[in-house]
Amino acid sequence: MFGPDSVSWQLHAQPAMWLAGVRSLYLQALHPRAVAGVVQNSDFRTDPLGRLVRTANFVGAATYCTREEIAARAARVRQVHRGLRAVDPDTGELFRIDEPELLLWVHCAEVSSFLSVGRRAGFPLTVAHADRYLDEQRRSASLVGLDPDEVPGSVAEMTEYLRLTRPLLRRTEDADEIYRFLHRPPVQGALALGVRVYEPVVGHLAYSLLPSWAVALYGRRAYPGPVATAALRGVSVGVRTFLRNTARVMREPRLGRLEPHPLWAVRRLGRWATPSAARLPGR
After folding, report:
1. Please, what is the average pLDDT of the chain?
2. Which segments of the chain does DSSP mark as H helices, in order?
3. Rounded to whole angstroms, how far apart are CA atoms 168 and 179?
4. At what angle do helices 225-245 and 100-120 cross, to 10 degrees?
């Protein structure tokens, strides 16, 4: 959908994207209706890694798979979303979780997190690269049913969207539940041994990468900015090692295997397509 010459192809293979994905979940949870939809429909309490793995697989597939496979996966996602409803915690209204406003918020929280964390981790994206990335990601927004023309496609448009959306965002009981979950997921077995390490170096670090206004809404202390940036640049490589060492657990059928889409794409196309900062447009 993007191709080996795109910004998305290079950025989404970076290990910092795992921290960016967790950061996006914190951000998404500040929207009361969006987080209500998650809490009321997701099985994250009993399957703590499943949603993260499925989301990562979908993002990876949308970037690196063939158009036919992307279309098939997207159709399954839209079918699931069409049948889900949630109750607005403020009004008691029953609403569809695939409302365009909610889908747009989830998309923007995700791609703005990918972009922000990637740049903060030191990936050499220029302003032009950032604009091109957000424009490319309009195509991924269409996979969940959004009109690409109504999705922010530049840094200026994304900044304005977030500015206009901020008055709708706030800390709720559901947001607090997501905060606790992302800091200390209720995993068992081999992964439970790593929770004490995960909490400060992934859970709280990802939280600390939020914009200052989002941290203020949560009202919980974050690592100082320079500390978070330095830790991000060191930990992002460690995240790849962590995932490699826990590959056995990730193959558990209940979770579904974490799919190495960049690797599969390179095997399909050839080594010339290996994601790299050197392949960024204009370099």
Report:
1. 89
2. 7-11, 16-28, 32-41, 50-64, 67-82, 100-120, 127-143, 155-165, 173-183, 195-198, 204-208, 212-218, 225-245, 247-250, 261-269
3. 18
4. 100
Q: Which two tokens stand for residue 145?
A: 């049913």
77 within domain boundaries: yes
Start-to-end Cα distance in the chain: 21
Residue 202: pLDDT band with limits 50, 70, 90: confident
CB contact at 8 A, 38 and 237: no
Give the model's pLDDT for residue 55. 84
Among all chains, which residue has been given the structure tokens 């703005």?
A: 112
Helix axes 16-28, 50-64, angle to 10 degrees: 120
Beta bridge partners of 96: 85
Q: Is residue 1 part of a domain?
A: no
Q: Give Cα 272 distance to the centre of its chain.
A: 27
Q: Which domain holds residue 261?
A: 7-279
Domain assignment present for 236: yes
Identify the bridge partners of residue 87 per DSSP, sorted by sequence position: 94
Number of domains in the chain: 1
2 assigned to some structural domain:
no
Instruction: Taking residues 44-68, report their average pLDDT.
Output: 84
For 246-266, what is the mean pLDDT? 63
The structure's pTM equals 0.91
Nearest to 184 by CA among 211, 208, 202: 202
C-alpha distances in Å from residue 85, one per residue of 38, 96, 99:
10, 5, 10
Residue 152 — φ and ψ, nearest 5°? -55, 130
Q: DSSP state, 84?
A: -
In the numeric block, which tokens belong to residue 195?
């929770």
Lowest mean pLDDT, pick from 173-187, 229-243, 244-258: 244-258
